[in-house]
Design brief:
Strand content: under 5%
Shape: elongated
Number of strands: 0
Largest sheet: none
Helix content: over 70%
Structural class: mainly alpha
Length: 78
């Protein structure tokens, strides 16, 4: 699990859900079913999008090290 992606989940979720609801409303669908569908789709896509964004940030950051981000061992356990 990636701590950066957990933090990015909040921002990514609001952007995705809000954007999809705006798209649905701008297409003229004002019933509750398309709006709920857009919210559900946004919530389903939130975690994968946050994880991809997190990986892109880490890949382009010269100061980030995968070894340094690994969990620390305690008493021979991870």
């Amino acid at each position: 699990m990636d701590r950066l992606s957990v933090i990015l989940t909040f921002a990514t979720g609001s952007v995705l859900v809000g954007g999809l609801v705006i798209v649905v409303l701008s297409m003229g669908y004002y019933a509750w079913q398309p709006i709920v569908g857009a919210v559900a789709l946004g919530l389903v896509l939130t975690w994968p999008a946050a994880y991809v964004i997190s990986q892109l940030i880490k890949r382009n950051d010269p100061g980030w090290s995968a070894r340094r981000d690994a969990p620390k061992k305690r008493n021979g356990k991870t």
